[in-house]
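The instructor's notes for this session suggest beginning with a concrete chain rather than abstract definitions. Hand out the sequence below and ask the class to guess, before any prediction is shown, which regions might be ordered.
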Amino acid sequence: MDYDKGGMQKDIYIEYETEYTTCPLCGENRFNKLHTERGILGVVRCLACKLIYVNPRLKNPEKVYCGEAEKYFAEAKLIFQGKAKHHRDPNYLNDLKLIYRYKPSGNFLDIGTNMGFFLSNAKGRNWKLYGVEPSQSLSEIARKYFSLNVKTAFLDEANFEDNFFDIVTMTDVFEHITYPKKLLADVRRILKPDGILFIKVPNALFNLFKLYCANIYGHSCHYDIFDSYEHVVHYSQITLRKMLERSGFKVVKFTIGKPMQTPVWHEYVGQYYQYPSPWCMDYKKQTMRSFLHLLSRVEYYLYGKNVGYLAPNIIVIAKRNV
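After discussion, reveal the predicted structure:
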């Protein structure tokens, strides 16, 4: 059954909906193409700094999340009613546990709050919670159903004070940012000198691994590997470190998060994508994700705590380089 999505994504894009760009890390315009998705969206790798990014990319890809509030609510209504958990809650709680180890209290800003699922899990600790989310529909839901302090704005429009936040988070957000160095400059301004920046992004090397496997089996054109309609920059540990260091940050820690066990309800009922589904409904994929995560941990330690090809995501803790 077709999944009734809340967002504004399309299956095929054409030229007038896209724009060409230079490398978001080094500014070069020399690249080789790796893949094409949704008609015209190109996944390329910079020949100078090796960053993987989308070129051409959608104009204003954040507008994908400017759908109708009613559809977003319907997608997750059991969560808002307290009758079900979000399928990412275990991942969010692990992320917050790591953040707590570095900063157990203080002003906490979540960038790209969406409907508030991550930030709502941060309640009940010694953090004063703030959020910023440019989608009117999503930010309204976060305020209404989770009573979160979320501004409807991009970060540079939110008028936060300098040196105000002890913690700034971007959980599955930074890969959506078309001008990452500009955003990091804004984060650096509002982050205290001893504050921490938490980022979790999909691992570009894992996407390359998936592309390699898909090409072997002839499936590379049948589904999104890079989610290029919304994920416009794809980071490896090396390129994420470069992006942070060139933006005035120093890396404190790189690690790997547990895989998301994506639910499959929507395949049967066209909705309920947000809720965990029983293991028996998708045991093959769930087992494979868990097995790959175990292998990725082995790979991580074998290669000197470097995130390799088998980890689905990368987590980094960084501080201002003062």
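Then share the key points. DSSP finds nine helices and 13 strands in the chain. The domain at 71-201+234-320 is CATH 3.40.50.150 (Rossmann fold).
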